[in-house]
Amino acid sequence: MPKVLLLLTAIVFVMGVVHTFISPERTRAFLSSRRLGVGNVLAATLGIVTPFCSCSAVPLFIGFLSAGVPLGVTFSFLIAAPMVNEVALALLFGMFGWKIAGLYLVMGLAVAIVAGLIIGKLDMERHLEDWVRAIQASNAADVTIQPPSWAERIDAGVSHVREIVGKVWPYILAGIALGAGIHGYVPEDFMAGIMGKDAPWWSVPAAVVIGVPMYSNAAGIIPVVEALIGKGAALGTVLAFMMSVIALSLPEMIILRKVLKLPLIATFTGVVALGILIVGYVFNTVL
């Protein structure tokens, strides 16, 4: 727990300072001027530096739509923000090393970018709720704001630590406790039979289906991932479970229902779930 918390605090502080260089208004304006493809890459990359859970990312998702950011580009952000952020990467690096963290980064970004491209190509704007479609793109003039001093940037980093680490540390404790329970009491043969490398092909889809009804963030679920792997579960199967918990939670779907009609929610869920399945099978094949 001390290792995870120290690493998390350092990463969140650095990203808090980085955030002082990024204006949400300018970010929306920047993304709204980008076409499908380039915009998807930029939006997914932006998701890395926004340590939101899926539900926290939805208000910014709505803001992007209101500002005229293309639907597919906006979905790339919505997928990447909870699934591939500094919290997830810091914890993966601390527990599994840079190779696993790097692979997760690449595959997670690929899912976010490709899923956003597919949704954008399907031209599903008609499945936005009417009140969202009625909102006109904001054309407010860019207001010149005095850049903060370095002292203010440092204060922002400290505030970021208080806000993020202060919010997620109970999840870390709960995750480590649950992971310890799995490590100490769940039979190794049981886990290996369900999620191990020699488990049947349906183990990856089953892991995704089990993960969707759950709701957690990276801080809470990664210690569980570590315990499952310690019991002999295949890395790809466990990461597919983790991605489904973080990126396809039921609370997120309930909130999105206020913005999206059911066909678009179903398409979003199906495309992302397919991407997660591919990630699971790729990890199991490569590692």
Number of domains: 1
Beta-strand percentage?
under 5%
Distance between the termini: 27 Å
Number of helices: 15
Q: How many β-strand runs?
A: 0
Shape: globular
Q: Strand-and-helix sequence, N→C?
A: HHHHHHHHHHHHHHH
Q: Could you name the ranges where pLDDT drops below 50 across 5 or more consecutive residues?
A: 136-143
- Mind summarizing the main beta sheet? none
CA radius of gyration: 19 Å
Assign the structural class, choosing from mainly alpha, mainly beta, alpha/beta, alpha+beta, or little secondary structure: mainly alpha
- What fraction, in percent, of the residue positions are helical? over 70%
**Which whole number gives the mean pLDDT?**
76
Q: Key terms for this structure?
A:
single chain, 287 residues, mainly alpha, globular
Task: Provide structural commentary.
The chain is an all-alpha fold. The protein has one domain (2-136, 152-286). 75% of the residues lie in helices and 0% in strands. The chain has helices at residues 2-19, 24-32, 38-48, 54-66, 71-83, 86-96, 98-121, 130-134, 150-185, 188-195, 203-211, 218-230, 235-247, 250-256, 262-286. The chain is globular.
Quick summary of this structure?
With 287 residues, the chain is mainly alpha-helical. It is 75% helix and 0% strand. The longest helix has 36 residues, at 150-185.
What is the secondary structure topology, with strand pairs?
Elements: H1 2-19, H2 24-32, H3 38-48, H4 54-66, H5 71-83, H6 86-96, H7 98-121, H8 130-134, H9 150-185, H10 188-195, H11 203-211, H12 218-230, H13 235-247, H14 250-256, H15 262-286
